[in-house]
Histidinol-phosphate aminotransferase (Dyella psychrodurans), 353 residues
Amino acid sequence: MSVLDLARPEIRSLQPYSSARMEADGGQIMLNANESAWEPVGDGGLGCNRYPDPQPAALLQALAQLYGVSREQLFVGRGSDEAIDLLVRAFCRAGQDAILIQPPTFGMYAVSARIQNATVIETPLKPDFSVDVQALLDSVMPAVKLVFLCTPNNPSGKSIPREDIQHLARQLTGKALLVVDEAYVEFSDQRSVADLINRYDNLAVLRTLSKAWALAGARVGSLLAHADVIALIRRIMPPYPLPLPCVAAALVELSPSGQAVARENIAIVREQRAIMRSALSRVPGVREVLPSDANFLAVRFDDAGTVYQRLLQAGIVVRDIRRYPQLGDALRITMGTPEENARVLTVLNEGRA
């Protein structure tokens, strides 16, 4: 069975839109896309008067090398969110198919499914925020086409063991596409499972430049998967998903000097995460600081609402995650600079009763 047998048949047979840029290979005088012939003021040589390459070759090459995959196993879009949306649209028929998630987890999986009118099936995480592998497998029914895992998980920060992911990929073969969201994997000791896509054609991996690579504003995310899955996603992608300035910013960040800086910052975040976890655990009113492999800490408070407002009044914005299952007393604190983190501790300690 091909993994494409899980996809919507009408998508498999869809005639994709052929953009003017796709048909312009080798052109010198570009008169086919109704663009302006003049570069805009302040363009700096980017050529923003022209439509961008739908999948820029230089960016694909840089990301493929970074993630250890081939260019045919890689789709680049506007953040991981776009890849999630395209996967749901490609594999889930409205009103018939479903996705499976493990709350508490990243909210966009369910949002994308509901926009598509796909059912959202939930298998809650265990009390320690680990995946209940057997309960997950027991929840898989024929309607389930996509199973989403987030590791390290957002908002808990807990990673899923590699052996659990491999076991799920094996068990879901021919049943569902397993989508592993690794938005925070650079901050973890656990390595990516991207190398497993050569072994399991029903495994897909989401990566992003928004977190460790400091490009949240550029919106550059990747889907790594079997070449057939990537080819399917490219059939339904928007004609020009990546703006030229975003591509340029990504290429600078992925240069040798850019990668060196990013890795230095990742090391600082990991160090600060350990310092903050220890310090926060000693703050009066803190019930628990959850262990985290990400660039944030989920912290339980006696009165999370009051703490949130105290921080906000001091100009510090953290994430209120009390709406998530099992986290009704928690706030999520992203690791900032050492100075910013010290300020958080100062404000929390000033509020001692």
Observations:
- Residues 35 and 336 are 42 Å apart (CA to CA).
- The mean pLDDT is 95.
- The radius of gyration is 22 Å.
